[in-house]
Amino acid sequence: MGRAAGGRGSLVAIEGPAGIGKSRLLTHAREKATASGWRVLDTRCTPMSTTIDYCLLRDWFSMLAHRAGNGTHPFDGPGQVLSDLSDGTTRGIGDLVYGVRWVLEDLTQDQPVLLVVDDLQWADVGSLQALDLLVNALQHLPCLIVYAVRTGEQVAAPETLSRIQQSSKVFTLSPLSRGAVAVLLQDESPEATNDDVAHIHDVSGGVPFFVKELMADHEAVPETVVGSIAGRLGRLSATATATARAVCVLGPAASVGTVAELAGLRLDHVADDISSLVAAQVLTLDHGRLSARHPLIAHAVLAHMSSAEAADVHAHAADILSRRGAARAVVAGHLLQTMPAGDEDVRARLAEQGECALAGGDHAMAIRYLERAIAEGEVGPEDARLYSALARARAADGQIEQALAAWDLAAGHTEDIDDLARLKAEAGDALVMAGRHTDAQEAFGALLDAETPERPAQQRLVARLVLTGMLTGSSVEHLREQVRAASAGTGADGGYDDRLTMAAQAVLSTFACENAAGVRRNALDAAGDGLLLQAEGPEGAGTFMAASALTWASAFEESEALLTSAIERAQSRGSGPGLATAASARGYARMRMGMVTEAIGDFESALAQRSLGWKAHLGAVLSGLVECRIARGEIDLAAEHKADLEGIAHQPGLNGTYATWALADLAEAAGAHDHAAALYAEVGQLVTDRMDNPAILPWRSGEALALIRLGRSRDAVPLAAENLRLAHRYGAPLAVAQGLRSLAAIDPTSDRVALLREALEVLGDIRALRLQAQVATDLAGMMVLHGSTDNREVVRLLRLAETHAGFQELRPLGERVTRLLERIGEPVKRGNSETVNALTVSERRVAELAASGLSNRQIAQQLFVTVKAVEWHLSNVYRKLGIRSRTRLPAVLAVPAPRSPVLEQRSAVNH
């Protein structure tokens, strides 16, 4: 505009597809010119403009000529021809162009002139020729012509328009970025989420017109968009709509051949249509693959098809693709859109694809396929599996009531007692995942009482009865009788059902406080190097029971390995409940190993699945989080779970007992020792005759510590002694070490140093770093209190505790270590812990996985988040830690750096 105002006029072209923002830029040019004192002459062409001779010249100058009066300057002399346009007088193109130049030279004497035209592609031939001839004249006038051209439309004089464009400064507009869409959406809806931004950007392709329409209605295809696209298709050719519709129906299977057959058109006509549709940016053609340019275009193209019409078209498409040898999944995708017709082959294809979707974790899609398969016609006994698969899909999608209804329908079509037992087991598992443990227990028990399934099916039900007994607090002896009955008769063959029985026996032996070594053997035999997990999947009862028994027996690393496999399996299958159950159990194993930060990550992963209805082990998860938060000194964060815990606590079973234990821990952390002692005693009442084992919950130790703080040592000491006796009886190293530590703290008459040394010795065979650090600190403190002259051992113990407390961010333990070091005159190490402590739990998890060598995509898959979320967390990590790349993460986080494959190979060769 600056050059034009100085007398060097030109043409500016704004190009792009419909809706890209050309008209908005023209509006901006008009406003800027008007504000700068320019005269603005404006017009817009329509598809009908081609029928009006010299439509541009009429719109730009006829009103000015009318106002000036006929024959009045500047519409006199050569300019008279512009006044005559309205009366239909025929004029030559040369006279008209000369007249335009005559008028513009006069108009630009007082102020620069901006000539604006939108949708120039629809201008008539004469107007385009006039513009072409005006190009040279404009170079000597303070005049600027700005025009917009919609790509892909038919033009009356394409060669002329091409010459005009070659003489113009051309701006080709691109779609909006996701960030730009986010800015627009934030202005319109401040509460919008990143998911909303992603949805609108992906569906619209970033086309501003589509973006604006979708912002007004996120779900529907706006009628304005449908109308716009329908109009564009109608202008291209008589068959363009049919061709575009066939492409959108066929989806990834669209080719010239399949499109022609579906649309009923000749190949050459389809080829011409595709060329026009690609030019109009309705379709894309990439390496022979046809598709709608944006999802919104596909929706708009198909919007006016009735349900019946759509069903017929998809049935035709399925037939075409089937005959052409397309993949069964592709054909099934079209059959999904058809109307039921009692075709068993159609049902088989739909059922097959539904089960594939279920196995792949796409539960919503599995539900659609399976419901459509069932609707194909009458369902007989041989089709009970369809209801069973539908029930599993609905349960995995959090639709527990609908899932139970489907299982009831499956049972109604089942006569075989073993198949019925399997269905009841599936339904019971879903009830467990939903936290309805009593309902599950009643369902398992009722079937066992009413029927007599074969031994494998009976074992399957009894194992689940043990699981629900864990969660509801059933009598150990009653459960053992059930297991013995299920195990009687035919000898074990080491199959899945026998493994379930072994896992159940391991749990029951733990509840009875019997033989930790035997429990470990039973649990490992049950797991069978992954055979149990492979047979039942991550949602099964056996893996959870075996892993829990291993954790209680202090076989933490074996439990963690089993549960990590279960988590990976759940992630690969898209099983949220399976992920939550495995993560909750792994959180406990890691917590007892001393991996507090990692345990918090597992517990939070489990809690994130509550949106899918998962509540199976909610009390235990919340209890674990409370213990971890208290260990880190995050009392406020721990207390946030109090309301949820109150709703679960004071009931028998693992969840209720763990929740009560957590409330006791919170009371003790708040200094309410009376209340804490009462709650620990309540835990004792809840576990009596059910699961009274200090390896599960050392309630006697907790009550004794609360009592000693109340000055009631006479009541406290017997509790601590009995806790240690039971721990020795069971034989799990962690429980024994905890018992020794508690007795040392509570009994003033004991040899405290000897008890603590014994505790450290017991811990030497297992990985329990937090307890080891706590015992080491206790022992160092006791030695300092007794005036030990061997400061080297004291320092060694404190340094061990200092390292662990710093790495796991255990502030209370770290502060205690610091006080002892300062007391004996030793320097306190100031490492990276303070900066690392600034990381959130999510940031810490992402950072540690990145430090281990995983890519952003691998981290996203492992944590069930997007790659963008990983990138965002890492950017925060780098900023907080003051580093620039992931290569520094191992050193800052004090974890081993990943080794390259080359170094691994060299190491293998050298050793």
From TrEMBL:
InterPro entries: AAA_16, P-loop_NTPase, Sig_transdc_resp-reg_C-effctor, TPR-like_helical_dom_sf, Tscrpt_reg_LuxR_C, WH-like_DNA-bd_sf. PROSITE patterns: HTH_LUXR_2. It comes from the Bacteria. Coiled coil: none annotated. SMART domains: HTH_LUXR. This is AAA family ATPase. One of its GO terms (molecular function) is DNA binding.
